[in-house]
User: Fold this.
Amino acid sequence: MLNPFGPQREPGLSSYVNLQKRTLQKVQASGVYDQIFQAVQNAFEDALGKENIPLSRPERVRLFSQILRGVLEDMIKKLEARTPKK
Assistant:
Protein backbone atom coordinates (compact mmCIF):
# COMPACT_ATOMS: atom_id res chain seq x y z
CA MET A 1 0.00 0.00 0.00
CA LEU A 2 1.34 3.39 -0.97
CA ASN A 3 1.75 6.12 1.59
CA PRO A 4 -0.99 8.63 0.65
CA PHE A 5 1.29 11.52 1.58
CA GLY A 6 4.37 10.06 -0.07
CA PRO A 7 5.41 10.27 -3.71
CA GLN A 8 2.80 8.98 -6.14
CA ARG A 9 3.07 7.79 -9.71
CA GLU A 10 1.25 10.87 -10.95
CA PRO A 11 2.78 14.26 -10.16
CA GLY A 12 0.81 16.48 -7.82
CA LEU A 13 -1.15 13.71 -6.12
CA SER A 14 0.94 13.63 -2.97
CA SER A 15 -0.61 16.61 -1.22
CA TYR A 16 -3.28 16.34 1.42
CA VAL A 17 -5.69 18.37 -0.71
CA ASN A 18 -5.38 15.94 -3.59
CA LEU A 19 -5.79 13.01 -1.20
CA GLN A 20 -8.95 14.68 0.07
CA LYS A 21 -10.26 15.18 -3.48
CA ARG A 22 -9.55 11.58 -4.50
CA THR A 23 -11.17 10.22 -1.35
CA LEU A 24 -14.23 12.44 -1.78
CA GLN A 25 -14.64 11.24 -5.36
CA LYS A 26 -14.55 7.62 -4.21
CA VAL A 27 -17.07 8.27 -1.43
CA GLN A 28 -19.37 10.11 -3.86
CA ALA A 29 -19.11 7.26 -6.36
CA SER A 30 -20.15 4.79 -3.66
CA GLY A 31 -23.68 6.22 -3.61
CA VAL A 32 -23.49 7.33 0.00
CA TYR A 33 -25.53 10.47 -0.73
CA ASP A 34 -28.39 8.35 -2.04
CA GLN A 35 -28.20 6.12 1.04
CA ILE A 36 -28.30 9.07 3.45
CA PHE A 37 -31.12 10.72 1.50
CA GLN A 38 -33.13 7.49 1.46
CA ALA A 39 -32.64 6.87 5.19
CA VAL A 40 -33.84 10.38 6.07
CA GLN A 41 -36.73 10.12 3.63
CA ASN A 42 -37.85 6.78 5.13
CA ALA A 43 -37.70 8.18 8.67
CA PHE A 44 -39.56 11.31 7.49
CA GLU A 45 -42.33 9.26 5.87
CA ASP A 46 -42.67 7.09 8.99
CA ALA A 47 -42.84 10.12 11.29
CA LEU A 48 -45.28 11.92 9.02
CA GLY A 49 -47.47 8.83 8.82
CA LYS A 50 -47.70 8.72 12.61
CA GLU A 51 -48.81 12.35 12.69
CA ASN A 52 -51.75 11.54 10.39
CA ILE A 53 -51.91 15.09 9.02
CA PRO A 54 -52.70 15.50 5.33
CA LEU A 55 -50.22 17.67 3.47
CA SER A 56 -50.17 18.77 -0.14
CA ARG A 57 -47.24 17.69 -2.28
CA PRO A 58 -45.58 21.14 -2.10
CA GLU A 59 -45.98 21.17 1.69
CA ARG A 60 -44.44 17.70 1.96
CA VAL A 61 -41.53 18.69 -0.27
CA ARG A 62 -40.90 21.89 1.70
CA LEU A 63 -41.17 20.12 5.07
CA PHE A 64 -38.87 17.32 3.93
CA SER A 65 -36.33 19.85 2.69
CA GLN A 66 -36.36 21.57 6.08
CA ILE A 67 -36.07 18.26 7.96
CA LEU A 68 -33.23 17.04 5.73
CA ARG A 69 -31.37 20.33 6.21
CA GLY A 70 -31.82 20.05 9.99
CA VAL A 71 -30.53 16.47 10.03
CA LEU A 72 -27.46 17.39 7.97
CA GLU A 73 -26.75 20.44 10.17
CA ASP A 74 -26.96 18.21 13.26
CA MET A 75 -24.54 15.75 11.67
CA ILE A 76 -22.07 18.57 10.99
CA LYS A 77 -22.36 19.79 14.59
CA LYS A 78 -21.66 16.28 15.87
CA LEU A 79 -18.65 15.99 13.57
CA GLU A 80 -17.31 19.35 14.73
CA ALA A 81 -17.76 18.31 18.37
CA ARG A 82 -15.64 15.20 17.71
CA THR A 83 -12.88 17.12 15.94
CA PRO A 84 -9.96 17.98 18.24
CA LYS A 85 -9.41 21.70 18.73
CA LYS A 86 -6.06 23.16 17.70
